Amino acid sequence: MPKKKEADTPTVDEKFDALDLTTKEPKTVVLMLNSSENLVIAKACESLHKYAEKSERNRLELLNLSAVDPLLQHLRSTDKAIRAHAALCISSLSTHSDVRKLLRKLNSIPVLISLLNADESSISQEKASLTLSNMAGDFTSKIAIIESNGVSSLITLLSSPDCDIQRNCVKTLSLLMEDYQGRAAIRECDGLSSLVSLLDSEYPVVQELALLTLTHCSQDGESRECLRDIGALQKIVEFLQNKSYGDLHVHALQMLSNSLEDVTSTQLLQGSGALTSLLQFTQEATSSDVQRHAVSSLGRAARNPENRRILHEQDMETTLTGLLNSDNCTVAVAAAVAITSMAESPVCRDTIAKEEGISGLVKLLAREESEAKEAALLALSACTASAAANCRLVVDHGGLEHLIESLSHEKMSIQANAATCIANLATDESCRADIQQVDTSVALLLKMLESSDNVAKSRGATALASLLRDAACRSELHARDGVGSLVSLLHSTNEEVRHSAGWALSLCAQDAVIANEICSLGGLDVLKELCESTSRRSQFTQLALDCLLDNCISAKYWLTGQLSPTDIIQDGFYDVGLCRAGAKFLTLEDLCKQAVDQSRAILLINAGSDKPTAAASNLETDQSSDVKHTETANLPKERSQSRTRGGRGKKAAKSEKDLEPQGRSDEPLPSQRVDEIPSWQPPLDQHFRSYVDHIRQRLLPLATVQEQVEYLATFVSNQMGGEIEQSAVTSFSYEHSIGKIKYELKSNVVPIGRVSTGIFYHRALLFKALADRVAISCSLVRGGYNRAWNVVLVPKRPRNVDGQTVQFPSQKFVVDLMYRPGCLMAEDSQEAIRYQHV
To answer: Helices 523-532 and 553-560: crossing angle, nearest 10°?
Structure first.
């Protein structure tokens, strides 16, 4: 049997000759990536890299040809050359956002980080780090790099001799440090020292990226602590002193600005003398951009109170005030902003003024640039807060004119800051007078109230409120119809606007004329609604309501049902009854113009002229006066005799004006000029005028307050129908008599003197009105079911105790005007309680 022929060894003729393939189709080259030959794969990667470098369109085409997945697979190849060429191609493709999205989806980060190892070629390291820097801008990629221990590998390569690798690694780290996870990771790897060492690099791009990364790191408190521990702050200050690094000083200052937020950093620089060097650098910097950033860094540090103290010890105010006069506007603006922070301290405010800082700020305010005006106004606001001397300096250096002009600036923030300055100046009486002498000041502030900007509205109202402390300003506001603008601000949805408007109205309401106008414009109703709201009420609106009610006691009695002894009833007071839910408070003029109806009569107090009437002198004998009076015989005998004694006559000679309550006068208020008195006048009440004159003549001779109260009570009772049996109250008819008066007057408003038949609330009102005219301490309280009563304060007579005269405190009594006129009942007695309730 023949032997089996052994397999022949391939001859040269059976080998495939090398093929030089030329193709213009990228699709063909992409197919070559699936070759089993390393040389073909390497050539294909190289060709695709060149194609991708040409345009964004080419990179998108390769993405659509599914080139990314096989390239990523070749990053895991055992062949170094293939890994290098694949990394080269992917780095070019990764500049396209869609490619980066696919790389994240394919979990490429761990593969790329593996190429950063020391045994890889420099090309693989460079291109892998470049791809990572392209992808690190996305948050998901940042987390993947951190979780794959990429931070450690990147830090290791910072010491690479290859500049491109250093640049790519530090750029990637810079992007990672934007988030706190990256900052924590670099601290764990002790990578901050490596970053600081890059400041000595011979490549500016590496230095710049290192500074940017350190700036991101310094945003974190723990990282700032680490930077202090490794001496990074002193290194930065030394870096600033190197003039050859001038184009990088801005980046260094940004990092230093973050670090100086910590008091510990500032103290460290002060202790090492670096802070002095920094201030000197700030003064001597030749680049305006660098100087501006240096000032901004110091100003940012000055936001902290302890830092302000340290900077004050370093005479920072001298540096800042000097830079206010810089020819470069941006530097002067930065200095003004820093002064704003420093001026938070009263000590620094004084130093700024001593260093001519106020005059420098006024000069800055005079510049045309809006940025300069805004910064100067902000600094002046801080320097004049609670500093009367600085306020005076602003005026003395001509700043008031520029402040007033700024109120009409087109930029709302400038208007707002100018209004704040004016509000500060107005706290000083002399400055306030200077402001009021400028004719346009109030008008411009009123115009700000119509602004669409809430900050401008609020600041304008605040400045106006500061001026309204003076009656002259309130008169001007009234003359310019500005009260309505303030009332309208109460409807604002902005809390600060409502607060400022409430404060301004509380000052306006000190004038009775304006208080009545506020009520007529609906201000009372709005304030009442705000104070009843749980979400919109504030101390400012409550203050405005209280001041308004104190100076418009008609509204106060309507709303609260009480008038205290200090609430003096003057001419023009009217009682519209109890406040009902949803009811609006109407002015007396509106009520007088209403048609007569069946509603409760509005009781009016209006004596008119303060001159005695002829009827008063003949009150007891002249029947034509229509004044019902109390016969002397109705008083106790001993009291009648006491009025005829000579000793009492000497007291009677005392001027009647001395018995009137202080501050109560029927003359127009100082702020109410004659030409401001409205054309419409409420009806006069000659009967009440006669009551006043009669009471003044009769009560003056009486020795004690108790005697005066008893006489006044009896008088009031007699004018209102006399004593009434308690059982007859319900049958006591008074409606018909008052209805007849309403018909005669053709008005629902009835003067109190015309009421001849009255019950509790008629008598109590008349008693209070007369008591106020003769300085008897009396309150008025409204009850239910037409009840009302008066509480008077009667001093007790002094007694002799153990040979010493002892003065006992006064006692409060409820005055009976119905059942036993003149009877005084202790306020808390059962007798008084029965009188007050049905």
So the answer is: 40
Q: What is the dihedral of CA 174, 179, 182, 187, to 10 degrees?
A: 90
What distance in Å separates the CA atoms of residue 652 and residue 646, rounded to the nearest whole number? Answer: 10
Q: Angle 347-351-356 (CA atoms, 0-180°, nearest 5)?
A: 150
Residue whose structure tokens are 């001496």: 231
689, 698, 700, 712: which is closest to 612 by C-alpha? 689
Q: How far apart are CA 477 and CA 509, in angstroms?
A: 12
Name every residue whose Cβ is closer than 8 Å to that of residue 138 and which is 6 or more positions away in sequence: 100, 104
Joined tokens for residue 529: 């609604």
Q: What is the rounded distance in angstroms from the CA atom of residue 283 to the CA atom of residue 117?
A: 48
Three-state secondary-structure class, residue 524: helix
Report the C-alpha gap between 707 and 817 in whole angstroms. 15
What are the structure tokens assigned to 479, written together? 């003359």
Whole-number Å distance between alpha carbons of 472 and 478: 10
Report the sign of the C-alpha dihedral through residues 181, 182, 186, 189, in that order: positive
CA distance 351 to 383: 10
Angle between helices 305-313 and 346-354 (to 10 degrees): 30
For the stretch 111-119, contacts whose Cβ atoms lie closer than 8 Å and that sit 24 or more positions apart, written own/partner, are 111/72, 111/75, 111/76, 112/75, 112/87, 113/145, 113/148, 113/149, 113/150, 113/153, 115/75, 115/83, 115/87, 116/150, 116/153, 116/154, 116/156, 116/157, 117/153, 118/156
Report pLDDT digits (tens) over 190-238: 999 999 999 999 999 999 999 999 999 999 999 999 999 999 999 999 9
DSSP of 752-770: GGG--S--HHHHHHHHHHH
Q: How confident is the model at residue 24 (pLDDT cuts 50, 70, 90)?
A: confident
Using DSSP bridges, classify how beta strands 799-801 and 824-826 pair: parallel, antiparallel or unpaired: unpaired
The CA radius of gyration of the chain, in Å to the nearest whole number, is 45
Distance CA 323, CA 656 (A): 68
pLDDT for 682: 84
- Helix then strand then coil, in percent of the chain rounded to 5, is 60, 5, 35
Which helix (H) or strand (E) is 782 found in, with range? strand 778-782
CA–CA distance, 332 with 318 (Å, rounded to integer): 13
Q: Which of 700, 719, 710 is nearest to 635 (CA)?
A: 710
pLDDT, averaged across the chain: 86
**pLDDT of residue 614 exceeding 50:** no
Distance of CA 603 to the CA centre of its chain: 43
Q: Kindly write down the DSSP assignment for every residue of 276-317, as one continuous string.
A: HHHHHHHHH-S-HHHHHHHHHHHHHHTTSHHHHHHHHHTTHH
| Nearest-10 Cα torsion for 752, 754, 755, 761 | 0
Give start and end residues of each alpha helix (H) in 2-116: 26-32, 38-54, 56-64, 68-74, 80-93, 97-105, 109-114
Give tens-digit pLDDT for 754-813. 999 899 999 999 999 999 999 999 999 999 888 999 999 998 776 655 556 556 678 999
* CA gap 420, 702 in Å, rounded: 57
What homologous superfamily does CATH list for 291-394?
Leucine-rich Repeat Variant (1.25.10.10)
In DSSP notation, 571-601 reads: TTEEE--SPPTT--PPPHHHHHHSPP-SSPP
pTM given for the model: 0.76
Q: Which helix (DSSP H) or strand (DSSP E) does residue 791 occupy?
A: strand 788-794
Q: What is the pLDDT of residue 15?
A: 59
Per-residue pLDDT reduced to its tens digit, 536-545: 989 999 999 9
Strand ranges (DSSP E) for 437-564? 562-563
Domain residue limits, the chain: 291-394, 589-593+604-666+682-836
Torsion of CA 542, 544, 545, 546, to 10 degrees: 80
Distance CA 59, CA 71 (A): 13
Q: Is 411 helix (H, G, I), strand (E, B) or coil?
A: coil
